[in-house]
What does this fold into?
Amino acid sequence: MTAMLLLLLSQVNAAPLPATDAIAHSLRDETARRAFTVVLFFSRECPVQRSHDARLLELVRDFASKGVGFIAVDAQADASLEKDTEAVRARGYPFPIVVDPEGTWADALGVRFSTTLVVLDVRGRVRYRGGLDDDRVRLSTEATPLARRALERLLAGQEPERVETKALGCVLRRR
Amino acid sequence: MTPSSRSTFPELARLAVALLLAVAGQVRAQACCAGVSLVGPARLTPHEDALVALGVQASPQVGSLDATGRFVAVPARTGSVDVVETLSGLVRVLGEGQVGLSVPLQQGVRWARGNEEAGLGLGDVTASFRYDFLLAGESAHLPGLALLAGVTMPTGRPPELAHQPLGSDATGAGLWQGALGLGVEQTSGHWFLQGSGLVQQSLPRLVLGVHETLGPTFTLAASAGWAFDDGAAVALSASALAALPAWLEGVRVAGSERVRTSVGLSGAVPLTAVWRLQGSLGAQVPVGLNEPVSLAVSLVLLRTWS
It folds into this structure.
């Protein structure tokens, strides 16, 4: 099997969803804009998410300038535009959070746990799916920077060494 | 003493303590199903692929309940303490399935009117299986649902084969037992609630030339707890066990039914990303029939792999 997982975006609900930047976003349109787009499955309550915020911002800072797009999605049943807007402000996220209480993006990308990062290429193919690193709540200096390594290889025109890893976040509460 | 209580005391004492202990078997709002302890002392979190656990528990007996439910305290200068070290392993299979094996080393200390004895030996080994159809917290409307199953093998020394006069070297029930049940659990923020129900049935066995069949045993357990952000968790739990009367040579033994109720307080603390420590305090409340009444304290150290 090649190191790429194929995503058939035609099967995804392409209807734009509201987001915290007051713009409606569709997964198809997001991926079409850049060579690579990172979709973060966000949870307001998950302690693993909270503990990784600084590392996430560091990842955005290092790769947004290289043309990688970032967007988050709240795919939980209690996703709320108001609460997610406040989360973006409080956490200093430089990217919007798409409000998707039906979990259409999670279904399309096969995601069950928050903190999962999915890297899609311009054709909508999943090139990496998994954790930011292999830490949980307690961060260690020995953590493996899984998403960073995957992005570095993709930007270098190579396949990630690990296309799929575990995101050690919380289970997404679905409707 | 009824046939049933004579044959199952070591096993039930161990399982009752494990029932309370396992509440702390899970952290990060994915608390362990208390019922699964009947078929294993721990459980994998959704991200874990395997674990090994080493536990020790001590259970001093404080009395017993007779066939009318009357509590009888342990007489003066008489006592009994069971200590069990258990080595357990769990491996993830079939996605959301878990298979496990628990190997106990059973030690008994008994004393009565100046006579003291101690016994040691392999207890009854238990194989367990759990399958989560839906994880706790995965649905806003439905609780997590799991199938629980287990088989206990007669690898310990049954009471009738004990060499010590007070039976301190009896380490097992001496029969095959199977358990089947369901576990439910749900989370809400830091809170978690769990419940489980199991039916346990043993195969007939020959005891000193007499055919004995224990009645089916039904266990209900519930717990409520709080999971902290750092992975620690505490929980209160309660359980009730009821067993129908035993049969000897095809004749139902009137008054041999058993009832036991227990409460406990459990806690879990992550030591590192892969090591965690669980502990519990438990007590059988003096409400029941034909059962010993014990206190229990336990500690379990777990190493996990993700």
